[in-house]
């Protein structure tokens, strides 16, 4: 057995490392993520701000802790400004809608009357004893169920989660600072407690994983730009005055697994149908359909090209990740694929797998 291991040491070590990483990913995102999510977010922030931090340290002569503090302040300023802009825009839109609410209510009332007439015509052809309530009878019950049950429960959950949100936010920002200022010491400690063979695999994997990760984010950026262009073009055709703003919003929402722009487009289309604006409803559904088809067709190809994997491997990683991890598996799956590519990148075995 020892002789067999010595003869195939590199291959066996890589397979064992791949199994270890896969199990670690599974345990982290299914068991430990709820406890470690603020620190994971802090790590992501630190990695995103690392180029700026390195520039401040090497080119401008700032001490590491000073550069890390400046990077954190820049991040807070950028995200805070973007959030303030989105909130102010939303407030303006809600105010504008509230001012025109009487007109919308009148139009909605007319549509409900038309729906009642259609229901009455349909009721005539039903067998004796069958009865369909009119809109005025169904609407209070539906609203009571929505606001009295699900809406109230959701509101209570949201209010209860506010303290947790701010606690996680503070922990995330503080941990981001420590990752930026003491990252080398932290990673050195983690590396030193790992067995030697794992350290060797991590050293060989690091370069390939860095390239694959950059490719993954390039692919996501390309997909988001594609969604933004389709959205803006479609909304301009519909003569929407907020085409640019909504297009940028849909591009940002595209990062959400499965939901994406559908989170806004589908309810908007339904409201348009109720309001009798069939042209707008059909247009919104067409925009959503084009985005969905384009993303599903192009995503494996773009991911594969940017990450250096075959599109079939990218497609399989998306599907398997979704089946194992749920919605977040659409991100975790390609990430595991990147690690697999990085592990076998320096060996001809990569050609056999990909």
Which helices and strands occur, and which strands form pairs?
Layout: H1 2-7, H2 9-58, H3 64-99, H4 101-124, H5 135-193, H6 196-237, H7 243-253, H8 262-274, H9 278-307, H10 311-325, H11 329-344, H12 349-353
Helix pairs in contact: 2-3, 2-5, 2-11, 3-5, 6-7, 6-9, 6-11, 8-9, 9-10, 10-11
Brief account:
The protein is mostly helical and 354 residues long.
How would you describe this structure to a colleague?
- It is built from 12 helices and no strands.
- With 354 residues, the protein is an all-alpha fold.
- Helix 3 runs antiparallel to helix 5 (135-193), helix 6 (196-237) packs antiparallel against helix 7 (243-253) and helix 10 (311-325) crosses helix 11 (329-344).
Bin the strand percentage.
under 5%
Total strands: the figure is 0
SSE topology string = HHHHHHHHHHHH
Query: For the report, how would you describe the main beta sheet?
Result: none
Q: Give the terminus-to-terminus CA distance.
A: 29 Å
Determine the fraction of residues in helical runs and give it as a percent range.
over 70%
Task: From the alpha carbons, calculate the radius of gyration and give it in angstroms.
Answer: 26 Å
Poorly predicted segments: 348-354
Average pLDDT over all residues = 75
Question: What are the defining features of this structure?
Answer:
mainly alpha, 12 helices, single chain, 354 residues, disordered C terminus
